[in-house]
């Protein structure tokens, strides 16, 4: 009876959270307020570039001439339609469309407008984003319970959703890749968590590696650059040299290699097929001249602190992560080092990219993908604070930081008002608007 009551309470909490997120996102994107074909819509600019695979695949057979007239301009030019060659051109990978497809197909079946850009099809993107952020949070909850008491695990998840830009991409910019990548990283970490002897008798190791392979494959399909720093996470949970040797033996075994390569290869096939259709070659770099001109002088301060999308300026709760890493080092130095390497590696990668702020972004959106990795040191810092005499001060500070983030999230118009990275006046106007 107690188990049933606990289950009902937990399920009730998740349902309330789902309802709240759905109300917020659907209200934010209500056609009467924002308009279906405006920069505030679910399918606009970059979001349209991810989305176009859906109508192209299921309605128009990748024939640009069959698309509605001027739809590429109505959706912010996130993709191109070459009506001479018939090619549908997008530089963005297809993974977002893959995860959105069940929701989009349902909306398309229910919609009376069969263009692929109907009101219901727009709303399906909002529902998909809420679904995947909840799945990601649920998987991450299971991971954190291995390390933290239940209340601290729940508080950590609440801080990620309310105190960082995760909520912004789950509610406002639902068509971007980041909330889906957040889910993929949570899926990967949950699979690696299941490898721990305390979590499983290892009787279903093949099933666990299939989950890990699916997580990796989704990361590659969603944002290939993320795979560079997802790969080291395959050592997640390794505590000592003996554990490292065991994990490496597993990773290099033919069965595990076949599972991982098979999962990644299977999910890569549609993308490679698209490149073959577009360029006549599967080996294509779709981002053209965009590259890493700042690799020798990375823009780290801009990525972390600049008013234009600085990570810590818009997500100050993440300043607890370095504190948590120190605490984690004392008990699990290998895990602390792994998280630090990934966090610094991601920082360097974006700091070297030509558009180091990622353009229209809130709180540097590139780090949303990796929030599952940062959740553990964040939770460690919260646990230490909750058990200290400064608990009340910490609680008040967290409430203020959540209020700060929510204020900026709903005042932000997806793009920083100026091209000046260090324009503090514009940041202050956002904060006091």
Automatic annotation (TrEMBL):
- Reading the lineage from the top rank, the first entry is Bacteria
Q: Which residues cross the membrane?
A: 6-26, 124-141, 153-172, 179-196, 208-235, 256-277, 311-329, 336-356, 362-382, 389-406
Q: Keywords for this entry? A: Membrane, Transmembrane, Transmembrane helix
Write the protein's name: Glycosyltransferase family 39 protein
